Amino acid sequence: MQVGFTRLSPEERDRRIRLKSLPDKARGRMYLISKCIREKTDNIVIFLGQGSDELTQGYIYFLKAPSPKVAAEDSERLMKELCLFDVLRADKTTDAHGLELGSPHATTLCLKR
């Protein structure tokens, strides 16, 4: 039996609405990991490596870039877009379980935006 929004607590309703605003598959995995962390530990602050691959050109396709200049330009573009997508998604899914997200590689960049 599926429970409708009318029978949910206000907190649960807000949590489901926040999750529905996230469009990709990664949200489900991050949500479940956050849930597990919250249920099995006392940690409320977690650190993620968001931005490290973009910053250091750690993705495999950087090896096939036509030149180092093109790779650097793509790395800069990815870092700029990181705050709009990856960090926002991660923040919403961890927030659903009352966890605080720390993303050292991306935090400074996102604050400048």
Automatic annotation (TrEMBL):
Protein name listed in UniProt: Uncharacterized protein
Organism in which the protein naturally occurs: Cirrhinus molitorella (mud carp)
One of the GO BP terms on file: asparagine biosynthetic process
InterPro entries reported for this sequence: Asn_Synthetase, Rossmann-like_a/b/a_fold
Biological or metabolic pathway of the protein: Amino-acid biosynthesis; L-asparagine biosynthesis; L-asparagine from L-aspartate (L-Gln route): step 1/1
Lineage: Eukaryota, Metazoa, Chordata, Craniata, Vertebrata
Record has NADP as a keyword: no
Keyword field contains Magnesium: no
Superkingdom of the organism of origin: Eukaryota
A molecular function (GO) term: asparagine synthase (glutamine-hydrolyzing) activity
